[in-house]
Amino acid sequence: MNIGGYRDVLAVGDTRRVLILGFFVRVPMFAGMVLLTLHVVTSLGRSYGQAGLVTAASTVAVAVSGPWRGRLLDRVGLRRTVGPSILVQVACWSVAPWVGYAPLIALAATAGLFVVPTFSILRQVILRSTPPEQRRTALSLDSAATELSFMAGPALGVWLATSWSTGWALFLCQMAAAAAGFALWVVNPPLTSGAVSGAAGDRAEGSDASGRPARRAVRGFITVPVAMVYLAAAATTIVLTGTDVGVVAALREFNRPESIGWVLALWGAGSLLGGLAYGAWHRSFSVFWLLGGLAVSTAPVALAAGVPSFAVLITICGILCAPTITATVEHLSRLVPEGSRGEMMGWHGSAMTAGSALGAPVAGFAIDHGGWQSGFLAVSAVGVVVAVCGGLTSSHQTRSVPPSALGGPADSVGASPAAILDH
After folding, report:
1. Where are the transmembrane segments (predicted)?
2. pLDDT at site 208
3. How is 29-51 classified by DSSP, letter by letter?
4. Which of 118, 170, 314, 368 maximizes the CB count within 10 A of its CB?
5. Which domains does the chain carry?
């Protein structure tokens, strides 16, 4: 384990700046999610189900916009992509807190379609500014910053909602998010290296990250290995969202609903520590091995007999959350040409959003028919199936690559997709 690797990553100015900026960009985003629900329930007097519809409309819009906004980043660059987004965000959220339920849905969906692609931008800068051997460490730091933002954002949102009216709280939060987007526009960090242009005509259509022709590529870079990593990303969030639902159901069954907050915090702490440990590790692991480990470690939570054992098991299963998500980005960065990374990250975000949308109903259906234990077992089974299928597919792809295509010793640092999938 190389803790010094974090010092090396933070010594890179672009990486250090974008990690700090990323924390402050994401806090108002996470706070806004909570505030939107609280605004619908308290100020508009609607049910939680109706609040969920507003959140769902925004989430679906964000998922649809991901590949489109990412493709714009590749083609026209950061400022020409982010500038119009900021204007739309300001316009929508200047009006949304003061309108009724139906207009709020429309405005939230419109804002979602034109959301600033911050996750894509921040991770592209990290991938561009760090050498391949440091990417896992840098992405793990980004994952840790995301976990901290997720912990701080909702707490800030609740505090704002209790200090002011939810309308003003929502307005201030969304304006802060727009201001963070404007900061990105001002800083305008390069998204690709000088040798690679973001224009569509400059990228190698149908090539992998090492320039070799890719087979059966869709949109120039989505090959079978890439599609399987996207499926793994979706399965990861199915497991995570299902676990979230399972925690609530289990603690209600234990008659300890007041423990939900600190138990979820333990789960997040496990993810944070696991992500930092993975970033300091001396090698990468296949995303399918990590997904399988995440799924397998989630199943034993169903054996908990009370809150103490449940808390221990949920912390353990959190350890592989952040490493699995980090691995999906790391593997994609080596499978996809640099000129397509914006769209790559857009599809990655859409895959994870789709998984989040599926995880809750999968776990909920299982819980309704078999108790809270079945929720954990159901999402664990989904993760294991995808991990096994992905592992078998990657093994087949590795065997089908001619030895001459694998390169010599100079390719040993992750230049080949086959080498990545063989970890």
Report:
1. 20-41, 47-65, 102-122, 143-162, 220-240, 260-280, 287-305, 311-333, 345-367, 373-393
2. 46
3. HHHHHHHHHHIIIIIS---HHHH
4. 170
5. 1-192 (1.20.1250.20), 205-401+411-423 (1.20.1250.20)
